[in-house]
Every structure is written in structure tokens, then in C-alpha cells.
Amino acid sequence: MNVLVTGAAGYIGSHALKCLRSAGHTPLALDNLSRGHREALPTGVPFFELDVRATDQLARILEEHRVDCVMHFAALAYVGESVTEPLLYYDNNTAGTLSVLKAIERAKVPRLVFSSTCATYGEPERMPIREDTPQHPINPYGWSKLFSEHMLSDYAARTPEFSFAILRYFNVAGCSEDGTLGEDHDPETHLIPAILHAALGRREKVTIFGEDYPTPDGTCIRDYIHVEDLVEAHALVMDALRPAARFVYNLGVGRGHSVREIVDAARGVVGKPFAVELGPRRPGDPPALYADAGKIQRELGWQARHKEIVATIQSAWNWFSAHPGGYSGSLPRQV
Q1: Among this protein's residues, is 141 annotated catalytic?
Q2: Residue 285 — very low, low, confident or very high, per pLDDT cuts 50/70/90?
Q3: Which of 74, 230, 298, 330 could be stapled to 6 by a disulfide with Cβ–Cβ 3.0 to 4.6 Å?
């Protein structure tokens, strides 16, 4: 298939390009490079430097390249930033998805795989989280994605030949096993990269945000899915889409790890000390989120290959050790 990947220069999008090429598809890359990295884009893949909100240009690309499917990753994804700048998130994430759907309608693209998030569930009363768990986001990031989910469902309801998949991610981690792609955000707020930067001396310390949550050790619990497992699920779901198909799946390992457990596991991987401090809770952070990913396993046969957190951290450490300054060699801001 001809597959347009939005947000292609980002962490997940770049891994998706690599996966799609390996599977024999023809990917096209689109990114506005506001937070992505041109260095993460593979040679030989057509690249369009464009914001997804540029509807007319996007529709022309879809038409001219006879795109069979859009994988829509382009989004802002900092929970804390969404709390302080909510309109930025509704403009970029929700309005961005609206623009993608308008372009898809004009170009008559038959498939869309949408990057959603477990943040749409908010603070569920029960764990693990299933796809039918009520969705009550507690931050604008989660709402921006949930509004996008509703738009997608409403468009599909009147377009019977159109098919879509909504994939709700838990915490994505790790780097490509061959060492060619990694994780590079600025600022870096994700726990595992922050730890690895501290271990490399590129960051003064790691902050544990909150130790008074209602969890066994007082720190947040999250489900960490390896990025290569995640993008393999995207390719599998895309191949399974048929006219009028509507898929909604959680993507996770199905087991949670606390912040303290991640810190301890990373110490064993890096084999060197790094400073850890305690800080206040971040606004919009639920105590625990981990998935029941049984639905996609039952229906499509997918399950995560990287189930041990130590191996996931090791894959990230391999890349960070070789690229301590990220793709460009510059250091991320600390937050």
C-alpha cells in the first residue's frame, strides 16, 4: 500500500516508516519539523515538510500519490504543556485531525490508522483498562485526542466505504533494536530517556514527580510498550482494515511498572550512578494506567514481543549511548 505517515520525523512516526518499508509497503513522510528531526527520516522515502492543518496541500498529496492509508501520528503530546496551553493542543491535535479528515474526504482515501492515547481514559476506577472503560480525560491532551476519536467515528458513520482503527497507546519506550532510530525530544519529559541522559551526565538529575500516590510505593504506575511492538501493531491493523471496518484497540504490555521500579531497572542497565530527587506531582498525572490488550490479541493475533522492561531500557540505552546529544548532537532542555 501507499501509506502517508504524518508526524513522520517524530519518535513513533520514524519507527513506523522503517516498519512499513520492511513490510513491503510504500511509505510517504509528512512532518512540519516543529518537534521532529529530519535526521530520523530514511533516505529514499518521499518527504513533505507540511503542517497537517494545510488541508488543500495535504489533499493534493493524497490524490497525487494515490494514498491507500493515512497513519496519523502528528500531534503534541506533553500532558503538562496541555494543561498550561490547552488551546495549543486543541488547535494542533483536534483541528489537525479535522484537517486530515477533510483531506481524506476530498481524496477519497479509504483507510486511516489513528494514534490515540490511554490519556482518554482519565483516572479509571479499575485496572487493567479495557477498550470499553469509560473515557473521562483529566487533561487537555486526553480531551484533544478523544474529540478526534469522536470526529473520526462521526465521519465514518456517513462514509460506509471508509475504514479506520483507533489505537490507544500506553507509555511508548525503547529504541530500534538495530540502533538506527531513537527517541529525541526537547524538552525531554519521558522518564526513561530522562534517566539515561542523567546516566550520561547530560542532565543533572532525574525527578520523581510525586511519591504520595495511592500505589504500592507511592509513585505513578505505567504500562511501557516497546516502540517497535507498537508500530508493528499499526502495520498489522492496517492490513486487516476492510471497507466499513471500525477497530478500537489498546496497545500495551498489560503490566504496570512504578516510577521507582523503572529507576531501579535503569540503574541495573546503565551500571553507573545518577542523581534522583523527589518533586511535587505534575498536574494531570493519574496514579496508575495499564492496559488489557487482550482484544487485539484475540482478534488479530498481536501481542507485545518485548515484555521485560529491562530489555526495553537496554534498547534505549544502546541508542542513547551512541547518540548522547540526540540526532543533532545538541542537548535537550531540562524540565
Answers
A1: yes
A2: confident
A3: 74
DSSP letter assigned to residue 191? H
CB atoms near residue 190 (< 10 Å)? 17
Residue entry with cell 516508516: 17
pLDDT digits (tens, 9 = 90+) for 217-272: 999 999 999 999 999 999 999 999 999 999 999 999 999 999 999 999 999 999 99
pTM value?
0.95
pLDDT in tens, 251-261: 999 999 999 99
Distances from the Cα of 271 to the Cαs of 161, 199, 265, in angstroms?
54, 9, 10
**How many Cβ atoms from other residues are within 10 Å of residue 43's Cβ?**
5
User: Structural domain boundaries of the chain?
Assistant: 2-172+224-251
Averaged pLDDT for residues 120-149: 96
User: Catalytic one among 89, 90, 141, 290?
Assistant: 141
| pLDDT recorded at residue 329 | 76
Cβ atoms within 10 Å, residue 124: 18
Phi/psi at 55 (5° precision): -60, -45
Give the closest residue to 89 by CA, choosing from 144, 34, 18, 126. Answer: 144
User: In the chain, where do the E strands start and end?
Assistant: 2-6, 26-31, 47-49, 69-72, 111-117, 163-169, 171-173, 206-209, 221-222, 224-226, 246-251, 257-258, 276-279, 288-289
- Pair type for strands 221-222 and 257-258: antiparallel
CA atoms of 278 and 280, how far apart (whole Å): 7
- Residue 10 burial class via C-beta count within 10 angstroms: exposed 0-12, middle 13-18, buried 19 and up: buried
R_g (Cα) of the chain, nearest Å: 19
pLDDT, one tens digit per residue, over 311-335 is 999 999 999 999 999 998 755 444 4
The pLDDT of 127-132, averaged and rounded, is: 97
